Write the structure tokens for this entry.
Amino acid sequence: MVTIPIKENTFKRGIASRKTQFGLWSGLCSHIGAEIIADAGFDWLLMDGEHGPVEASGMLPLLQAASNSHCCVRVPWNDKVLIKRALDIGAETIFVPFVQNAEEAEAAVAACKYPPHGVRGVAGSTRSSRYSRTNDYIHTADDEICVVVQVETAQAVEEIEKIAAVDGVDGIFIGPADLSASMGHRGNPGHEEVQAALKSVAERINAAGKPAGILSGNTADSKKYIDWGYTFVAIGVDVPMFAKAVDTALSDIKALI
């Protein structure tokens, strides 16, 4: 039988070495869209299973279409079954939303690791093991799977050092939209109070020895966040990018006629 070695997680190694990793958030839930953005050359892509209308069966073709890029999957919730299914279809990096404290971070890590270090169920012929051709997958997967927990509320920010101290948390991602809402500035992540919190929490995450990540809406903010110490930055979301391009094309031609 053909033997295929496990794929090296370049994203996990990149953020561990604090090398800036540029990403793109994908909510199109289209295998054609995934294939198009995968060829752009991003260091990582995020396939959104939380706000995107896609289940595991729909996530699989997205990962297949974008197989020449590093694909992260955001699961709908910090749930060991949902995480297991994402891992089994081949997700190399898992983003876990709305982690509020160290205990929830520990649960996320445990869901991503096989016993005795975790509770991930064992299956021998899934896509993650290249349908059993990676015959040592069960022994090597824990080292290659990357666990990113999302801190999205002011309450969770207060717990950041404890969350960062959890063994097996490879990165902490800050969600500006939810954080701003929890701080009383819903829809306004650019508010000076929110921006001050984003800068402060990046410093605290780095001081705790973990890489920080964030989602940005424009180039200027992306540069600013990198200057503040964020290592992995999603520079935009494909859905509004597509909408803006379509709107601009129509308005441009109307302006000429």
Observations:
- Strands lie at 21-26, 44-48, 71-74, 93-96, 146-151, 171-174, 212-215, 230-237.
- The two ends are 64 Å apart (CA to CA).
- The mean pLDDT is 98.
- The chain has one domain: 10-256.
